[in-house]
Please model this.
Amino acid sequence: MARLGYYAAWAAAIASIAYDVPQVLQVAGMLPTPLDRYLIFAPSLALAPCFVVAVAATYDEGLREQRPWRLAALGLAVLYAACVTMVYVNQLGVVLPRELSGESKGYELLACCGFRQPFTVIDLVGYTYMSLSTLLLAPTYRGALRWLLALNGVLVIPIFLQLFWPQLIWAAAPWLVTFPAAMLLLARQSREHR
Model:
């Protein structure tokens, strides 16, 4: 199981970095639309199952007293994946193709990621679950991994509060670093248990 966790944590780190780069380029106005959204949603869709598998693999590696924490983290990881997968599949399979064909009228409700759009809310709730998942994993590790998981976990506050104040996206921006770094350290930890 440690091998699976190692590869899944690496894949989660790679997928999150593959999301990070186009997200930064989009904000800087360096990517045309809809290419920007394809480059953001596709790795995000890949990230969801990778994160779930990485968290699932931690369960067997944990001591008995750590397992309830890790199982709770897994439950939240599954909720995260369920929420965001629904969002990204709709974006990649419905919204963007309809926009490209000029048939987007009537599908505005499915769009993401603007303030008070239903799929934006689902996406933010998903990332709230992800942050809570890493927060629950944090006390089951030591050292830098514990701190990175905890730092990513406390980002739950600005992530969730973006439902009301979208400008808090800047307060949640450390996720671009804390999450992939935590996944890389989790991969290293899994490798040591092989």
About this structure: Residues 1 and 113 are 36 Å apart (CA to CA). The longest helix spans residues 67-101. The chain has a mean pLDDT of 93. Residues 2-192 form one domain.
